[in-house]
Amino acid sequence: MERYLQENFELPSKNPSEEAQRRWRSAVGTLVKNRRRRFRHVPDLDQRHQDHAKRRSVQEKIRVALYVQQAAITFIGGAKKNEYQLTEDIIKAGFSINPEELASITSKHDLKALKMHGGVDGISKKIRSTFDRGISCSDLDTRQNIYGVNRYAEKPSRSFWSFVWDALQDMTLIILMVCALLSVVVGLASEGWPKGMYDGLGIILSILLVVMVTAASDYKQSLQFKELDNEKKNIFIHVTRDGSRQKVSIYDLVVGDIVHLSIGDQVPADGIFIHGYSLLIDESSLSGESEPVYTSQDKPFILAGTKVQDGSAKMIVTSVGMRTEWGRLMSTLSEGGEDETPLQVKLNGVATIIGKIGLVFATLTFVVLMARFLVDKGLTVGLSKWYSTDALTIVNYFATAVTIIVVAVPEGLPLAVTLSLAFAMKKLMNDKALVRHLAACETMGSAGTICTDKTGTLTTNHMVVDKIWIAEISKSVTSNNSLEDLNSAISSSAWSLLLQGIFENTSAEVVEGKDGKQTVLGTPTEIAIFEYGLKLQGYRDAEDRTCTKVKVEPFNSVKKKMAVLISLPGGTNRWFCKGASEIVVEMCDMVIDEDGNAIPLSDARKKNIIDTINSFASDALRTLCLAFKDVDDFDEDADSPPSGFTLIVIFGIKDPVRPGVKEAVQSCISAGIIVRMVTGDNINTAKAIAKECGILTDDGIAIEGPDFRTKSPEEMMDLIPKIQVMARSLPLDKHLLVTNLRGMFQEVVAVTGDGTNDAPALHEADIGLAMGIAGTEVAKESADVIVLDDNFTTIINVARWGRAVYINIQKFVQFQLTVNIVALVINFVSACITGSAPLTAVQLLWVNMIMDTLGALALATEPPNDEMMKRPPVGRGESFITNVMWRNIIGQSIYQLIVLGVLMFGGETFLNIKGADSKTVINTLIFNSFVFCQVFNEVNSREMEKINVFRGLLSNWVFIGVISATVVFQVVIIEFLGTFASTVPLSWEHWLVSVGLGSISLIIGAILKCIPVKSGEISASPNGYRQLANGPDDI
C-alpha cells in the first residue's frame, strides 16, 4: 500500500507541479461517491488555467491602456474628453469633481486633465482634503456614498442549503434512496399500510440524518475558512486623518485619504503622488511589466495592487474599490482553489484503495446473498413463482450491498484533514498566528530546522540607546548623569553635528495622535536613536539646523545603510550616512574630535573604534555608526559617495531577549528541531544573543554571510550541519542556506522573514513565516504563516499544532480502518454462511456517520499536548500508516470479529435467548455491541502508543460531546426507533453485555501497546517517532 501511495499520491508540501496534481486525480479515478464534496477543497485545474489566461488578457489591456494609449494621446496632442457632470449629491456634499472623472485621471495617467484641475493641490481642494491634516473622520460615510467603498465584488458566501445539496450528490445515497422508494412501494403492496413502509422510510430518515449532519459540519468549516480568508485580506495602512497619523484597514480607506507608503507596502487604492523619496513601484501584478517604475511629481500616478519596491512617499487617494483597475481585475477572477495538502492527497489514496476493496466485498456479498436466495427458492417453491416479498428481499439485499460501499469508501478521510486544519487554523488565529496556506499548518509539524531572524523575533524589538562612543569617548547613557557627562566632554559644534545627523538622516517622524500626544513613528532602531536625539536636544539648545533635504537613499538590507543629502544654509551640501558599523567605518577616513573638528582616522584610532564596536557587540548591543561628508556639488542620479566620510558617533542599542524564548528554544531541541539564527547584525552581537537564547552551543559554529556564500558545495556539506548562527547575512545568504538544507540534507525547513528581500527565502522554504508587526506586505504575501505578534514562541505553537494535525489524522485513520475491516468482513462472512447480513442498511448508515463525520469531529480536533514536542519530527517520505497503527488496527479488528462472530453463531445459546424474536434480539445485540466497540475504540484511538488513553479527556469538550451524543442516539435507536432500524428494545442484562464487550476494547488496546513492533528506520513509537523522555508521563 505504501509503495502505491508513494507512486501515485505523493505531493510536495509547496508549489506542486500540475503533473503531480493531475496524476493523483487520475489515480482516484471514478471510484468517488460524491465528487462535489470530496473535491470541494481541491483546486479546479482547468478553472485555474482559465483564470490565468483571463488575468494575462486583462493585464495586457491595462498595459496597453497605460503605455500605448498614453503615448498615442501625448503624440496626437489630445483626445476627445468625456463630459462629466456634477450631480446634486456631489455638490451638496461639498465636492467639486465627479467620481468617474477623478478615477479616470489616475487610471489613464492623464497628466493634462490633472493640470487642468490644478495638479495634486487642485484635486485635494476639490475632494476637501489637505496634505497635512488629511480628511475629517466625520466625512467617511459621505465619501463612501459618493466615491465608493474600497472593496471589489466577490461571490456571495454559500448558504447552508447549498451544502445540503452537495451532500445529496452522493451516488450511493441516491441509489439507496431509490432502493428505499422501491422498498416502500413493494412493502405497501405486500404488507400494507403502515408496516410495509417502515424499512424504506427508515433508510430515507437515516439518509436525511447523514446528509444534515454532514452539511452542518461542512458549513461550519466554510464559515471558519471565510473568516480566516477575510483576515488574510485585511491589510492595515497608515493614513493622516484629522491631522493625526492613524492605522486603518484598507476596507475603511476612502477618496481623499493621505496614505503613507514605505518599502514593501501594497498600494491599497489608486492615488496621486504628493511627495516622497526614491519611490520605486513594481507594477507587474497589475500590468505584467517586470520593470519597476520611478514615481515622482513628474510621474505622479500610483495604481492599486502595485507594490512599493523601494523608497517612501505620501499619496492622496483618488479612487477605490471597483473604480480601480485592480478592483475590476480581481472581481473578474474566480477563486481557483488552494492547492491540496500532502495529507489530503495521501488520504485520497487510502480512500481509493479501501474503496476498491469495499466495492469487491459489496459485490461478493450481493452475489452470495442472491445465490443463496435463488438456491433456497429453487429448492422450495421453484424459480417460476415470484411474489412481491421476493422483490422486497432482493431490494433489501441490494440496499445492504450499496450500504457496504457507503461504509467501505471512506470519503471522510480527506475531508477529515480539512476539518482538522480548519480547527487548528482557528485556534492558531487566537494564538497570534494567521495561517495563509492550509499545507503550512500540516507541514510545520514535520519541520526539522527553523531559520529565524534575531531582531523582533527572538528579541522584544523595543530598542533603546544603551551606550555611545563619540570623539574617542565611550559613555553609558543609562545613568542619570550621562547627558551631563556628555555635555562636558564635547563642544557645542560636535553636539550640533550629532543632532543634525540624528534628525536629518532618519526615517522616523513625530506625529500627533488622536489624544493630542506626540509619538515617534518608524522602525524600532530609528525610534531608539530619534528618541535619544530628543533627549539631547532637550538638554542643550542646539544651533539652528534649518536645512533642506535634497536626496534620500532609504535603508535596505543589501546595502545595510541609509543616506541623505541636505542643503546647508551657507549654500554647501552635506551627506549623512548611517548603517552597519563595519560598513560605515570602512567608508570613513576622518573622525571628529571633542571640538567637532575632523581629524585623520589613523590605524590606531581605527583599531580603537573596531575594539569599541566589538565591545558593544559582546554586550549584546546592536551597533550603528553615523558619519558625514561635505560636498560642493552632486549628481542627482548618482548614489551616495562610497568613501571620504567623517565618523561622528557609534550607537550601542539594546534589544532585550523576549521572555520565554529560551524555554521555546529548549522545547525545539527536545522536539528534534534545530534552531538557526540568521541576522544582519554584527557577529559578536549575534553570538551574545544566541548564547542567551540557548541557540549557540559549544559544538556549534557562528559564521558571517560573506564567508558562507564563498564556500564550495563540498565545504557546505560539512559546514551547514554545524551552523547555528549566521551574522551579517544578506537575504541571498538566507535563501542559499534554505536551498541547501532542503536539497543537500532533505530537511523540512521553516524560515522567518520580515523584509521585501526575504520574499525569495520565504517562498523557497517549506514553511515561510512572515512577521505581522515588522513584516512588509510583500513578505507577508510570500509567506505561508503570518506571526502576528512577531514572537518566536508563537512559531513553536504552530509546530505543536502541525504535529497535532498529523497525529490526529493518524488516529482517525486507525479508527476508521478498524470499522471498515470489521463491517466488511462481518457482513460478507454472515452472507456466505447464513444468507443474511446482520447489519441492515439503516444500521450501517448510522455506523458510517459514527466513523465518518462524528469520528472526524472527535479525533481530528484533539488539541496538542506537551508530549508531542518530546519526539523528533516526521521526515520526508516516511510511511503515514505506521506499523504501530497496523498493530492496533489488526488487533482490534480480530477482537471485534471474534466477539461479533460468537454472538452471531452462538449468541442465542450462550445468552439463553429464546422465543420467536430471538433472531431479532441477537441481531440487535450484535449491532449494539458493534457500536459500543467503536465508541470505546474511539477512546482507545486517542493514544496510539501509550496505555493511558484518558489523559486530557475531560478538557476536550468536543470529544466528550461527540461520544455522549453517539451513546444517547444509540439508546434512542435501540429503544424507540426499532420499527425503522430493525431493532428491538434490549433488557438491562443485554445492555450490560453490549457495553461490557465494547469496554474490553480498552483492555485489548492496553495489551496491544505492550507488543513491540518495528516502525521503519526511526523507531517503534507512534507516527515513526522515537521516544526521548522516560518517566510516569510516558505510560
UniProtKB/TrEMBL annotation:
GO cellular component: plasma membrane
Keywords: ATP-binding, Calcium, Calcium transport, Calmodulin-binding, Ion transport, Magnesium, Membrane, Metal-binding, Nucleotide-binding, Phosphoprotein, Translocase, Transmembrane, Transmembrane helix, Transport
Domain of life of the native organism: Eukaryota
Region described as Disordered: 1-22
Keyword Lipid metabolism: no
Membrane topology according to the record: Multi-pass membrane protein
Subcellular location: Membrane
Reaction equation(s) it catalyzes: Ca(2+)(in) + ATP + H2O = Ca(2+)(out) + ADP + phosphate + H(+)
Coiled coil, from the record: none
E.C. code: 7.2.2.10
PROSITE patterns: ATPASE_E1_E2 (PS00154)
Every Cation-transporting P-type ATPase N-terminal domain range: 116-188
InterPro entries for this protein: ATPase_P-typ_cation-transptr_C, ATPase_P-typ_cation-transptr_N, ATPase_P-typ_cyto_dom_N, ATPase_P-typ_P_site, ATPase_P-typ_TM_dom_sf, ATPase_P-typ_transduc_dom_A_sf, ATPase_P-type_domA, Ca_ATPase_N_dom
Molecular function via GO: ATP binding; ATP hydrolysis activity; calmodulin binding; metal ion binding; P-type calcium transporter activity
Enzyme class: translocase
Bilayer-spanning residue ranges: 171-190, 196-216, 353-374, 394-424, 817-837, 894-913, 957-978, 990-1008
Family, per entry: Belongs to the cation transport ATPase (P-type) (TC 3.A.3) family. Type IIB subfamily.
NCBIfam families tied to this protein: ATPase-IIB_Ca, ATPase_P-type
Free-text function comment from the UniProt entry: This magnesium-dependent enzyme catalyzes the hydrolysis of ATP coupled with the translocation of calcium from the cytosol out of the cell, into the endoplasmic reticulum, or into organelles.
PANTHER family: CALCIUM-TRANSPORTING ATPASE, CATION TRANSPORTING ATPASE
Name assigned to this protein: Calcium-transporting ATPase
Species annotation: Brachypodium distachyon (Purple false brome)
